[in-house]
Amino acid sequence: MAYAAFSAVRRFFPARSVLAFLLSTMAFAASAQVCPSRLTIVVGFTPGGSNDVIARTLAPKLSEVLGVPVIVENKPGASGSIGTAYVVNSKPDGCTITLGSTSVLSIGPHTNPHLPYRLTDLAAVTTVAASASVVAINPNVPAKTLPELIALAKTRQVSLASAGAGGISHLNIELLKSETGANFLHVPYRGAAPGVTDAVGGQIDGIIMDYSALQSMINEGRLRAVAGSKKIGPIDASEMVISAWYGVMAPAQTPRNTINALHAAFTKVLADPTVRVNLDKLGIEPFLQSTPEDADAYIRADSARWGALVKASGIKFE
After folding, report:
1. Is residue 104 domain-shared with residue 44, that is, in the same domain?
2. Strands 122-131 and 284-286: what pairing?
């Protein structure tokens, strides 16, 4: 079954790097001049999604570390590939980078044969964060737990939104369908925000997305969380829900010293207590690689693993 192929993915986070060691070996970050005027972080999704929230959480401290303005620019569409392609085609000077994710960097190349770029067109800076995925439904849907939702979907169609076809939220829906045989309908959106809006408004039954994108609506009672990739407060963990990671990428021809300076800057940002507290409030934890080379190896290995899992699962993507 698909679960046998996907179960190992929930354990994909390696041991955390020792930040003190990283800081001691990369102390030049604070003075490194990455860009003379400003740094742009391109997010390939609409405002309010996890990529966007993480980028905007890191940007102020990153600006302080680098000594230049850091702008978050949203370029949504095609499950993050429009924004990623924009960065691929940008000048490789380190002034334009993207905050990608499992969906864009590891899964997308295996579910979208028409991507306008390849993973080799990007240079890894580092992974920065990991976030739990959550299944949340409109409070009017008569289910309070994931088993109850599955039982309901065996009596009628239950529609679930994702942040776009071919991404991790889509994959979670397909995994849920394949493991239960229940009648779950995947409804793709151009990012998290419109899907959340329709789930809250009752146009669809629910949504599977990162906790950071759903947290406020869950806390306000406008969505009901029934399961997550890990236990968060009263939210039960389920092995049928998979977590996501986020990473910073630059155009492939970006000079190595610039990549190293960016890595050192993000290392310093993620060591800041205020940044870590703000991420924790969103259900996100820092997830940092020791070097850009380690980040590159991790992302490429993760992409290969997802390729094998997608093929083995038999899951079909529209």
Report:
1. yes
2. antiparallel
